[in-house]
């Protein structure tokens, strides 16, 4: 029993003894009968012993006076009644109630309740500043939560939770700024840092024990959020976050609708402030054609472009189902934006030519591609025709029809590729680089070609995240190719924002001709760690409730991806998160001739010829048909070279 509990117990026992004496004294005083407290010492000790046992059983000693509530008052009433009901038969058995007036029993009940409850309520009132507030908070039925962060979002959330119909009650704040520890935000104490989380939760009273930790600051790194999820799972507390301003929907600010921690929160990527004015000037009033409009990146491009006031959006997509889905979504959420759903294949030069002649696009966002490494590895011709030849067809159509800007979306797998998908995307980069350099030689007239390269997009059709979600739904196991495999990840929203930002970026002073915009991908994430975190987010225990199985690298896969070739030098741009790289460029005539041969080989599905031509066009292409990369000092040769 600690010191505080001992003091509370001593107080309550003394009050019990005092109540016996005061009740008798008051009864005899009212009857004007002489009486001495000396005559009551035996009964006083006996009642104190009974009360000590009952109070301990009733849990009165465990209460924290700072948080005394109506619930504590009810416990005091029950303990008082039970003490008197036990003591009265004992006293009758010993003394037959001689010298103990029956009315003293009623008096003692009220005196004891007052002596026990009074000091508690006075202390709580002193702490809270108001008796009404003290009692009100004691009966609070809202869910107790801790906030992580003490900034503007936390302030707004606490203010919102003061409403009568609020869902949550903030019982404390965690903040990494030591100078804020011990201070109050709207009456809520900053209790300490994340390093003290376990101790903080342990010190909170049972009724104030948090059932959830709400992240109220976007500045925390992915590592911090991942550690928080793991620690909270061990403490039996769930983790959620406040909606970001960009995620609010409908009426009201939605502050009460906290959201579960999602996979993208584990990345902890900073929320950048983009130059919306430049992007709006690029898109506003323009006809925008988006290839692959039904894909993960394409559909997000459609959503963000629709919000920027285009004159027309042309949804160019070869999948009927995907086109229908994005067309219906646009009809529901942006019905006033003019749009055309166009079924078409970027590999069909005639169909592309007809679409460009019909719609006269000002801007083309080229997102159409085959991106699933093992599938492209097994279907080389399809990957070549779509990713390489399809990009050439779109780019040539842009130049013929005087499109102002074409944006080609590339991938980190184009760097030192070990698979066909990466090699074909590197060729797509080369096509746009070559045409952009030709434009600069011609006096910067004609289409401006912008190439943007980044890593994996969370939630895309080829991403591990949907796979893990399906496997979790089936009870596991979660399959990971290799214990050490890592990937760069970016959210779809952030990737598309930076794509549009790169497209709208002024070229004056950047010397961007023929260069590739590389998005800052942050730190690579180990897929095994991602799997474990997703298991915890699902409320399960890794390796206990849900197993992780290692299946081996698939054909064309590397342990590590890279966003830069060793010969590429990075140049900063005015926009945070967007860099410029200068990859090797092949002569445009030589490239065109090689692509003609590649297209012919693809039409005949001559895999050997296609692989040979890919290796000629992309000398750094190291094809590994067995899926087993050569390893140098624990890393794939291609990755180690970078």
Tell me what the structure shows:
- The protein is α/β, with parallel strands linked by helices and 642 residues long.
- 47% of the residues lie in helices and 14% in strands.
- The chain has 22 helices and 24 strands.
- The protein has a 9-stranded mixed beta sheet, with helices on both faces. Strands 3-4-2-1-5-6-7 form a 7-stranded mixed beta sheet.
- It is elongated.
- The two termini are 62 Å apart.
- Mean pLDDT is 79; it is low at 245-256 and 625-642.
Mean pLDDT: 79
The shape is elongated
Question: Count of helices?
Answer: 22
Structural class: alpha/beta
C-alpha termini separation: 62 Å
Number-wise, the strands total 24
List the helices and strands and how they pair.
Layout: H1 3-30, H2 41-58, H3 70-95, H4 103-128, H5 131-138, E1 143-148, H6 152-160, E2 168-174, E3 184-185, E4 188-192, H7 197-203, E5 212-215, H8 222-235, E6 238-241, E7 259-260, H9 263-267, H10 276-283, E8 287-291, H11 296-306, E9 312-317, H12 320-333, E10 339-343, H13 349-359, E11 363-366, H14 373-378, H15 380-400, E12 405-411, H16 420-441, E13 448-454, E14 456-457, H17 464-473, E15 478-480, E16 486-487, E17 489-490, H18 492-504, E18 516-519, E19 525-526, H19 527-537, E20 548-550, E21 570-572, E22 578-581, H20 588-603, H21 607-617, E23 631-632, E24 635-636, H22 637-641
Parallel strand pairs: 1-2, 1-5, 2-4, 5-6, 8-9, 8-11, 9-10, 11-12, 12-13, 13-18, 14-17, 15-20
Antiparallel strand pairs: 3-4, 6-7, 16-19, 18-22, 21-22, 23-24
């Amino acid at each position: 029993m600690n010191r505080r509990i001992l003091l509370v117990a001593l107080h309550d026992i003394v009050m019990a003894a005092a109540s016996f004496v005061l009740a008798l004294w008051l009864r005899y005083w009212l009857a004007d009968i002489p009486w001495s407290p000396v005559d009551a010492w035996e009964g006083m000790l006996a009642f104190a012993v009974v009360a000590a046992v009952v109070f301990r059983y009733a849990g009165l000693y465990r209460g924290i006076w700072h948080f005394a509530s109506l619930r504590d008052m009810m416990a005091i009433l029950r303990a008082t009644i039970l003490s008197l009901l036990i003591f009265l038969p004992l006293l009758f058995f010993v003394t037959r109630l001689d010298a103990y007036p029956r009315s003293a029993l009623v008096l003692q009940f009220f005196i004891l309740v007052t002596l026990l409850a009074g000091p508690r309520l006075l202390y709580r009132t002193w702490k809270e500043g108001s008796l009404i507030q003290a009692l009100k908070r004691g009966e609070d039925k809202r869910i107790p939560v801790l906030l992580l962060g003490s900034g503007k979002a936390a302030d707004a959330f606490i203010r919102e939770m003061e409403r009568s119909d609020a869902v949550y009650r903030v019982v404390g704040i965690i903040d990494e700024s030591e100078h804020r520890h011990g201070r109050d935000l709207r009456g809520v104490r900053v209790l300490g840092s994340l390093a003290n989380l376990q101790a903080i939760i342990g010190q909170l009273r049972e009724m104030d024990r948090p059932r959830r930790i709400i992240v109220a600051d976007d500045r925390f790194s992915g590592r911090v959020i991942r550690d928080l999820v793991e620690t909270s799972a061990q403490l039996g507390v769930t983790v959620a976050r406040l909606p970001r301003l960009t995620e609010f929907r409908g009426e009201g600010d939605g502050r009460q609708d906290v959201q579960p921690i999602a996979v993208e929160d584990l990345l902890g990527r900073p929320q950048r402030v983009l130059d919306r004015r430049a992007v709006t000037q690029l898109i506003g009033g323009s006809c925008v054609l988006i290839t692959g409009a039904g894909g993960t990146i394409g559909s997000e491009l459609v959503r963000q472009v629709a919000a920027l006031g285009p004159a027309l959006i042309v949804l160019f997509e070869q999948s009927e189902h995907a086109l229908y889905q994005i067309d219906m979504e646009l009809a529901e959420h942006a019905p006033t934006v003019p749009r055309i759903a166009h079924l078409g294949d970027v590999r069909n030069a005639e169909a592309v030519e007809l679409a460009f002649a019909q719609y006269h696009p000002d801007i083309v966002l080229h997102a159409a591609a085959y991106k699933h490494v093992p599938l492209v590895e097994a279907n080389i011709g399809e990957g070549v025709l779509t990713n390489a030849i399809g990009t050439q067809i779109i780019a040539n159509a842009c130049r013929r029809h005087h499109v102002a800007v074409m944006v080609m979306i590339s991938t980190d797998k184009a760097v030192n590729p070990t698979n066909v998908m990466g090699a074909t995307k590197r060729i797509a980069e080369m096509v746009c680089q070559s045409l952009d350099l030709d434009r600069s030689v011609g006096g910067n007239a004609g289409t401006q070609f912008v190439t943007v390269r980044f890593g994996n997009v969370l939630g895309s059709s080829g991403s591990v995240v949907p796979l893990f979600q399906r496997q979790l739904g089936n009870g596991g196991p979660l399959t990971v190719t290799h214990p050490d495999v890592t990937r760069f990840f970016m959210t779809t929203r952030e990737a598309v924002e930076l794509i549009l930002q790169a497209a709208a970026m002024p070229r004056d002073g950047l010397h961007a001709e023929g260069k590739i915009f590389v998005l800052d991908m942050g730190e690579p994430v180990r897929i095994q760690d991602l799997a474990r975190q997703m298991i915890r987010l699902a409320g399960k225990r890794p390796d206990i409730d849900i197993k992780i199985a290692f299946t081996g690298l698939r054909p064309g896969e590397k342990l590590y991806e890279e966003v830069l070739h060793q010969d590429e030098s990075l140049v900063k741009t005015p926009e945070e998160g967007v860099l410029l790289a200068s990859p090797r460029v092949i002569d445009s005539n030589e490239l065109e001739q090689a692509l003609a041969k590649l297209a012919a080989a693809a039409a005949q599905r001559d895999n050997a010829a296609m692989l040979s031509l890919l290796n000629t066009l992309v000398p750094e292409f190291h094809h590994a048909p067995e899926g087993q990369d050569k390893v140098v000092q624990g890393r794939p040769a291609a990755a180690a070279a970078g």
